[in-house]
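Hi, here's the filled form for the chain we discussed.

Project: internal
Contact: R.S.
Residues: 217
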Amino acid sequence: MADKVIRVLLVDDHQVVRRGLRTFLEVQEDIEVVGEAADGAEGVARAEELRPDVVLMDVKMPGTDGIEALRKLRELANPARVLIVTSFTEQRTVVPALRAGANGYVYKDIDPDALACAIRSVYAGHVLLQPEVADALLSQDEQSGQAAGTGRGSTLTEREREVLGLIADGRSNREIARALVLSEKTVKTHVSNILMKLDLADRTQAALWAVRHGLTA
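And the returned structure, exactly as it came back:
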């Protein structure tokens, strides 16, 4: 991966933001900005045309917003990883974005070097959340009664706990299978069992549960 140039699409309705992002990212040797879009609908079209590795997506945009654009990309099975880069911190923005399939969520005041690292991280397959974003998601889950799985961790087998720890590390099923010397089909079964036993909806909730309960490295 060291020799791979990460192809990035910028989707933000503010031209000055796009220009600033492009100026910074173009000096990164392993990142190439392949295009820009000013709203969600254009972002989906450009993502389908350009097939970038990572899309930097704002949330609040006129017309089709970032969350709806993200849902559309997932419906189209577009392989791009999506990193939300926004100034909105409310749970009503954070949670739907993650539920729609965002691979990361950071704020626009993020340090530029940290942003470059975030792009590399989501490209590598990790789920990237700033601490306050993770807190917001956990808080929402607790309020809705979904976080809990608390007390159910004892029902996990040792192998399931290993798989859960690797999910929290952002590993794909294929990577987990390789790390644990299992078939990918067996890993999928373990993941399904984990979600069922902990009463969680998806891998993001599972990763946050693992972090909260100390199952990460």
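Let me know if anything looks off before we file it.
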